[in-house]
């Protein structure tokens, strides 16, 4: 293997490589012996220039670098300094302006990966030398690559016609997009149709649903009893098959907003869980908030519970049963407790909680002023406390006619299928994950698929609406501007491929086609639009034909020869 | 030179979360042995058995693979692919006489700077104890 690499390197003239070593003020120069690193770099084959600079990432530093590039006729540059995620990016970007290809610039991380993590100066200097040498080897073998640019289709698909889906469709239509809304049920509205008076609008949920539907009426294509059947293509150019009552139709979209929501666990099922099993023998009636709201919807609060004298509200999340939805559960319980107690002052209302989000202070005060009694059990499990209390064997004897449990949310089984079709990762409870929420929040924009509302995590109506508006504006930005993708795609070497079809079968994105070449041999060809650059093809190939377009296996091997030695 | 370094370890990191965890280790001034060398790949799922063997071939005494948490994989399936590949390669490495203990996979989240340093230190310590790869044991 090493022979192969060296013949490759010899077979063409070595490019003129420049190495710029950053002192980072005094940080790197004090932690490492940079003169030794510089000396070592200068002796490397291909390196025609090596220099230590104080602040190459500063504005004058970058200007000087640009001049240097021209003056010395440098074709490749290695910058030894901090992580490429920090200033290296600015330097690389500035050098690109001098018509140097992005992939001819390499950053050797001698700060976060070296000086910062090793206190021994001599050892760290040795390592820095090697890191620079590896980067020089890598950049010497680099091939120029251009970014892939494409124009997205200005059409957006919204999946799910509930509170968040309707809000997102409305905002998207207001912003002038071509919007299609699909809903798997017969009617739009989702959870809004089951709620009574959601916080804090002061309107009934049905009115809100009606308003949101009339907002999109005539401006958004609506398909009910429709689900997403399949998805192909890349961000900006998705080819989606929609299935209406089993009939398929194909449409193209630039971006997709997923707002399928979640479903409530029914009280029958809750009563079968170990924590609540057999509880109905001791309690009066046990229902969920959703059932309470369905019963009270549209009726005046006064006397709505008939002759019931006391009610227990549970306003806590139960980790065994639900996704972290403490905010939603507390809010709904507080709101309903306050409404009921205000309407029926004679009713004895208990409120059981473990933790109240601080921003619900106002709702908490409202319920307390109405006369709701708050109980906070010492036991971490609120439900165990309820069970023991109701049985009369706990710290507090709870003697009530009605127990109202939170509406615990979970993902319906149909959502798992959707996650597979759209390739959205799911968490342990089946909720959709918005990846890289910590790295950059709009990363779904890169894929053009946004997840909003309760299918991401149990959300209040207010949260869902805010989320929808934010997603709508991000989606609009996504479908109206040119998409520039780094050319990090699989590249299958035609000279090496033998047409064994392994990669064709392994590719999960259908990005590899077998195309007949000369002498009737079928060879694997990568579709640039569909390829995500995941690299599975390179792991299954027995001939080593696929590699990442701008970073070849050869380069990584060359680096390994340096750092492994 | 080769003798001075006690545990020559190559770390393959995915360019997403583990690379950030590695940076994070630097930002928060964690410490790990300087014998560990990081090579960043676009995705840990790109790692092939050949590359792992190349690392051993070049003289590495241990290979640590740092992948993303499975559910956080940017390519959805990369981290899982990596897991399969590492498991397969472990058999291969054992068969070759290098020893499966010298190959290890760990998954990281972006803020795992401290854990990154701990994992690397622990692995380097383990490799140091194992010593050099016994070349005579490797079948010709």
What would you say this structure looks like, in words?
The complex is a heterodimer of chains A (about 575) and B (about 140). Chain A is of the alpha/beta class. Chain A has 4 domains: about 1-145, Rossmann fold (3-Layer(aba) Sandwich); about 155-260 and about 410-485, 3-Layer(bba) Sandwich (FAD/NAD(P)-binding domain), CATH 3.50.50; about 265-410; about 490-550, Alpha-Beta Plaits (2-Layer Sandwich), CATH 3.30.70.3270. Chain A is built from 20 helices and 25 strands. The longest helix of chain A has 20 residues, at about 120-140. Mean pLDDT of chain A is about 85; it is low at about 1-10 and about 435-445. With about 140 residues, chain B is an alpha/beta fold. Chain B has one domain (about 10-135): 3-Layer(aba) Sandwich (Rossmann fold), CATH 3.40.50. Chain B has 4 helices and 4 strands; from the N terminus they run βαβαβαβα. In chain B, α3 (about 80-95) links the parallel β3 (about 60-70) and β4.
Secondary-structure topology with pairs:
The complex is a heterodimer of chains A (565) and B (140).
Chain A: H1 2-10, E1 17-22, H2 27-31, H3 34-42, E2 47-53, H4 59-72, E3 76-81, H5 88-96, E4 105-109, H6 111-115, H7 121-140, E5 148-150, E6 155-159, H8 163-174, E7 178-182, H9 205-216, E8 221-223, E9 226-234, E10 237-244, E11 247-253, E12 255-258, E13 263-264, H10 267-272, E14 285-288, H11 289-296, E15 310-314, H12 326-343, E16 348-352, H13 361-370, E17 373-375, H14 382-391, E18 402-405, E19 409-410, H15 413-422, H16 443-447, E20 449-451, H17 461-480, E21 483-485, E22 490-492, H18 502-506, E23 512-516, E24 522-526, H19 536-540, E25 546-548, H20 553-564
Parallel strand pairs in A: 1-2, 1-3, 3-4, 6-7, 6-12, 7-8, 12-20, 14-18, 15-16, 15-18, 16-17
Antiparallel strand pairs in A: 5-21, 9-10, 10-11, 13-19, 22-25, 23-24
Helix pairs in contact in A: 3-7, 7-20, 8-9, 8-17, 12-13
Chain B: E1 9-14, H1 17-27, E2 36-41, H2 49-58, E3 62-68, H3 78-95, E4 103-108, H4 113-130
Parallel strand pairs in B: 1-2, 1-3, 3-4
Helix pairs in contact in B: 1-4
